[in-house]
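Reopening this ticket.

The earlier resolution said the output was attached, but the attachment link was broken on my side. Pasting everything inline this time so it's all in one place.
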Amino acid sequence: NKPEWYLTQVLMWIGNHSKFLDDKIQPILDKAGSSVNAGLEFSRALVMLILEKLAADIPCLLYDDTLFCHLVDEVLLFERELYSVHGYLSSLPSCMHILSEESCFQRWLTVEKKFALQKMDSMLSSEAAWISQYKDITDVDEMKVPDCAETFMTLLLVITDRYKNLPTASRKLQFLGLQKELVDDFRIRLTQVMKEESRASLGFRYCAILNAVNYIATVLADWADNV
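Inline output:
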């Protein structure tokens, strides 16, 4: 239940040894005419240990939503730091290969959808759902975006951020399919609320729904260039 313990430990080992590997070991390899990068080879070996640990742990966590979700969150944070801070290469083994394996991946998709739907329930039932966060700042709030629409688009963006480093396009497309389902679900929810408000088509909530639809359509159009 604490994958961050070993993930953080590995990041500390990589960080603490980098100067020694660069200053002492790499010159020896270079002198011998080797093409091996000492720092990357050290990182790769430690990541292989993590892959073994994950392969053993994941089957035990598959049906505990809380622990499984926590594991995925921690692995994604680990991967981000491994690449951005320690210069790890995408061509080397990574935790995303474990998360891409069929049983694990399908569970990840299921849990991601479950929590996204819960988030949508709470954002639409919130008292502030149809109020703009920036209603008092005229130059920021040209589109009069209600809070639920902004929160929903942030949710989609966060999901993209979580799956964008998956190693295969087919897995990314499955996540895109989930996002399309969520957009359609949100559309249905907006339609239901709109029907309740149809008698007051100039009312506050009805206008807020139209603003939400306009905002979502605009943002999706902006994302169209994002492969």
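Reporter confirms the inline version is readable. The helical segments are 3-31, 38-61, 65-84, 95-99, 102-125, 147-163, 169-197, 204-222. The longest helix spans residues 3-31.
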